[in-house]
Amino acid sequence: MVKKFDLLLKATVFAALLAGIFCGSSKAQSAQSTQAPAGLQGSSSQSNQSNATTPPVKAQSTPPATQPPVAAHASSFKPDRFAGRAGRYYQLVWGVDALSVKAVESGEIIRFAYQVLDVNKAKMLNDKKFTPSLIDPQAGVSLVVPAMEQVGILRQSAPPEAGKSYWMAFSNSGRRVKRGDRVNIVIGQFHANGLVVD
């Protein structure tokens, strides 16, 4: 009788243990199953956060093909400074054209040149009786044609010929007249105003 009771007790305890083990494992599995989505949600939220912080990769676009720049060609053409009314005035009234003023000899000399078109009208520019002067209002100076001992007056005074160019040189000691200045040439009644020094 005692042996049967012991066997029954052991069977009951064993059944209880099995029931406890079974219940514990099922609870653990259910807990894991409920926790798994949370873990997945965490990983998904982390991935979403990483996607939010990481800037999107832009597709590289190739720049449009551009044509190589065309090299600028240097032009030897120089615009006529006395085109229009001024040019016609010097041609019609004084019979001269292509007036130019240029600094030479490192700026120590200012050279005035012109081309004769009409001999009769241009006589005054070559006449020795008239003393030429170059006036620079900006520098406040008036230059004269110097007379050199061995060369003489630095001015062409031969009778003018049509189609030929003539010149005269003004002394610019101290280099008061500079390139870019606007000067006036006065020879008797001849006045050429606003000529730019090259």
Describe the 3D structure.
This protein is an alpha+beta fold and about 200 residues long. It folds into 2 domains: about 1-50; about 85-195, Immunoglobulin-like (Sandwich), CATH 2.60.40. It is about 35% helix and about 25% strand. It is built from 3 helices and 9 strands. The strands form 3 sheets. The protein has a 4-stranded antiparallel beta sheet, with no helix packed on it. The protein has a 3-stranded antiparallel beta sheet with strand order 1-2-7. Strand 3 and strand 4 (about 140-145) form a beta hairpin. The protein is globular. The N and C termini lie far apart (about 140 Å).
SSE topology sketch:
Elements: H1 2-53, H2 85-94, E1 96-104, E2 109-116, H3 123-126, E3 133-136, E4 141-144, E5 147-148, E6 152-153, E7 165-171, E8 182-187, E9 190-196
Antiparallel strand pairs: 1-2, 2-7, 3-4, 3-8, 5-6, 8-9
